[in-house]
Amino acid sequence: MTTEPFVIRPLGYSDLPRVMAVERRAFPTPWSLAMFVLELSKPSGVCLAALAEQRLAGYLICARYDRVWHLMNVAVDPALRRRGIASGLLDAMLERAGPEQSYTLEVRTSNAPAIALYERFGFRSAGTRPRYYRDTGEDAMIMWRTAQAPSASGAPG
User: Fold this and answer.
1) 23, 49, 90, 100: least surrounded by Cβ within 10 Å?
2) Distance CA 119, CA 143 (A)
3) Model's pTM, two decimal places?
């Protein structure tokens, strides 16, 4: 992993063309533009952009549901991975939403790098959702980070 400077700021509607380009490169079944617009329209969400060399390198979408935060989408341009961008986005999410809050997410059971990243941030497996991903029928691992989880500030990823 190399670390290069990047900036994290709120994600905006004007970022969506670049978000869609990264989304298509990062995932076999990308979110639609409408899904991003919906999440950006929620005032309680945390939506972040990571910029490296003045271009969108990654983004994070986290939505608030009652007393739990749901990490909906985090992606880094495949050409810019292993530079600490995902860790920076997760650090910023925890800073904005609160490290004392509870968080949940789903991740493909085959995505070992993402699972390892989430574990470094205190997320732990809490079961699976069978056949969660429609494109392949793959299971999703359900992960939770509770208020007691340790902070992973400065963790590699």
Assistant:
1) 100
2) 9
3) 0.89
Letter string b/e over residues 39-54, b meaning 16 or more CB atoms within 10 A of that residue's CB: bbeeeebbbbbbbbee
The answer to whether 103 is a known catalytic residue is: no
134 CA to centre of own chain: 20
Pick from 1, 58, 11: which is nearest to 36 by CA?
11
Is 118 among the residues known to form the active site?
A: yes
Catalytic, out of 106, 132, 133, 138 = 106
Which of 57, 121, 127 shows the shortest CA–CA distance to 95? 121
Beta partners for 10?
48
Residues 39, 59, 103, 118: which is the catalytic one? 118
Per residue in 83-140, pLDDT (tens digit) is 999 999 999 999 999 999 999 999 999 999 999 999 999 999 999 999 999 888 899 9
Can you give the residue ranges of every domain in the chain?
7-145
